[in-house]
Amino acid sequence: MAMLKVGVISVQGAIFEHVEAVKSAAAELGLKDMQVVHVRRLNELDNVDGLVIPGGESTTIAKLLIKFKLYDRIKERVTDEDLPILGTCAGCITLATEGDLEVEKTDTKLLRLMDMRVKRNAFGRQRESFEADIKIEVKNKDFEEPYHAVFIRAPVIEKVWGKCRPLARLEDKIVLAKQGNLVAAAFHPELTDDLRVHKYFLEMV
Ligand code: GLN
Q1: Looking at the 3D structure of the chain, how many domains does it have?
Q2: How many whole angstroms separate alpha carbon 174 and alpha carbon 160?
Q3: Per the count of CB atoms within 10 A, which of 11, 18, 75, 178 is most buried?
Q4: Helix, strand, coil: what percent of the chain each, to 5?
Q5: Count of CB atoms situated within 10 Å of the CB of 191
Q6: Please, what is the average pLDDT of the chain?
């Protein structure tokens, strides 16, 4: 069998933590042959079987995706091949179809791949970064225990429609959603030792 390859969009943001998390999650799943590569150029996107869009600054990430011509190709690979993507924090924002006023004002071009509306920096200045236990609603023995999630200037998913499903909430706010092979997390699963979100994603690859 050909070696599976997971790409991490490496234009800006928490890149290395994701590379490490994907490697560790693959090891825990016994996927010894999985390769993790940085994706900055168009040709680096062509042979990946799954993609991570990390946290960082969504306006910058979106601009660089366009500049490096990754934007259209990501959309194409999702539409034509169902490419699995895990987007975290800023990555979650870029996957959305609709954003809030801040997305509009900053002219952030979302990938518009998931039927959801996001609100940037939704927890405001008082709660710029915090940690909280959430319950991930996936019917899988792995997710019976709560998940300790790290939020950093996090967005929330204000609403989902169509084929997009909420998977976890913090209070009444959606912080994890899934649509087909696309997973969007408002938090940072790469910043804890709990690899369940990465493993859940790798099972789609
Ligand atoms: N606040 C950032 C944005 O709006 C996201 C923060 C993060 O990725 N940690 O793009």
Answers
A1: 1
A2: 9
A3: 18
A4: 30, 30, 40
A5: 18
A6: 96
Q: Check: pTM over 0.90? Answer yes or no.
A: yes
Range of the domain at 73: 5-202
- For atom 8 of ligand 1, the residue with the nearest CA is 55
**Per-residue pLDDT of the chain in tens (205 residues, 90 and over written 9):** 568 999 999 999 999 999 999 999 999 999 988 999 999 999 999 999 999 999 999 999 999 999 999 999 999 999 999 999 999 999 999 999 999 999 999 999 999 999 999 999 999 876 889 999 999 999 988 999 999 999 999 999 999 999 999 999 999 999 999 999 999 999 999 999 999 999 999 999 9
Distance between CA atoms of residues 205 and 192, nearest Å: 22
Report CA(24)–ligand 1 centroid distance (Å): 24
Residue of 58, 61, 109 to test ligand 1 pocket, by largest number of atoms within 8 Å of CB: 58
* CATH assignment at residue 134: 3.40.50.880
For the segment 108-130, what is each residue's pLDDT rounded down to a tens digit?
999 999 999 999 999 987 688 99
Candidate from 61, 92, 106, 121 with most ligand 1 atoms within 8 A of CB, to mutate: 121
How many whole angstroms from 122 Cα to the centroid of ligand 1?
Answer: 10
| pLDDT reported for residue 2 | 67
CB 176 within 8 A of CB 135: no
Give yes or no for a contact between 85 and 50, defined as CB atoms under 8 angstroms apart: yes
